[in-house]
Amino acid sequence: MATTKRRSSPTKPPQQQQRSQPVPTTTTLKKQDPSSDPPILLAAEPTSKKWRNWWLRTITTFMMIGTFFTILASGHIWVILMVIAIQTIVYNEVVQIADIPAKERSVKWFKTMSWYYLVTTTYFLHGESIIYYFEQIVLVDAFLLPFAVHHRFISFVLYTIGFVFFVMNLRKGLYKQQFAQYGWTHMALLLIVFQSHFIVNNILEGLICWAGNRPEGTNGISILLSYDSSRFVLPTSLVICNDIFAYVCGFFWGRTQLIQLSPKKTVEGFVGAWICTLIFGFLWASLLMRWDYMICPVKDLSTSAWSSVSCDPKNPVFIAVPWTLPETWSWAIGYVFKQQINQVWIAPVQLHAIVMACFASLIAPFGGFFASGVKRAFNVKDFGTSIPGHGGMTDRMDCQFFMGLFSFMYYQSFIKVKRERTHMTTYNLSVGAILGTVINGLPVKDQLELLERFLTYFVNQGILDPSVMEKCGAGALTEAAKAVFEQ
Q1: Where are the bilayer-spanning segments (predicted)?
Q2: Of 10, 114, 325, 429, which cross-links 329 as Cys (Cβ 3.0–4.6 Å)?
């Protein structure tokens, strides 16, 4: 009797078994992705949760504003240190969210190299600012002079060391991940450190008062410092104001989503914050220009808001001038208020405040939207937890960096150029600029000849005693210097 053998089905290899598993569809991916859920706007959140977050954010906001103005009043050096500290914290938060994937892929030295590049970039950018604004101090110091003269080459060597170290640590199978991390580090340097460098420049531009515009009783060699509110305090305050009113208007009236990257941002909050920031900017500039600490030169970095600071005359940008209104505006005002007004008094800084308020409300928020895109790319809610109710430092400073860059470019393009044309003979010359030209452009013999001629000039003008020629002339050279000149 014939028997038939049952053919057993061959066992599939592991690879074929994996291939036979169902592939996730778009529908299943949407279910797994929490970001695909419909957003809940602030106005639609449960009342208890909404008001709990409101009070938490309100308390921390007032704490941050109080800290900001305390540092602002403490003095100029503390403001610069505050900016550098914020830059470092934000950079750490941004690098931190990319450090977890680096550990999962066994990418070594990522965090170490990120911090190395931060130190190198900070040294280069802020070193450039210090040399530019404080030439008269740096170039006459025996220790600092070599660092100032060779600053860019030293920075290049430091960067090259990091570059060589990165290339030597490339590992087979990890090339793509390592280059991705390298690019991420440089993006963080560009968007954080590079832009914060311009914020520091805004402070220093506002701190430096050139000798041609110095007040009476000061000398041309001393460093004259002042906050120019149109360059640092005002732009920073405008962003803070816009953030606050965007939240408030969205909290009470937000119904229409503005952008998918940031689901809780609403059109009502965006427009309401713009209107409120315009009003705040005009009024805030009107108040700041009446505070001498914000607009007057002071003599040193130790000056604070509690110091006695005054100046006369003041910078013209803070002085109100009459503006003739168009006939249509005069008629409209007279019709509404039953009073004829043909001209108004407005200071130039108030008009600059309106322009900056528009940028702070309409363009700077896109820095926040960019940060929201980064958080969604890494599937994180916030950059950190250092500020209760707000997230991390990056969540609050994402717009400030963009605003700082705009303020610098706006000042250089529309304010500084105008001042250069008005004070051409005094603005382009400074002790530091002339000193840098002499030290870097003349040999030592010519420098000594220039010194001798300066001394002769001051003696002939009756400013110096003739005995200074004997003390500071050729007889004052050291033996080593005489041996060099005799060769």
Answers
A1: 54-71, 77-94, 115-133, 153-170, 182-200, 232-254, 266-285, 351-371
A2: 325
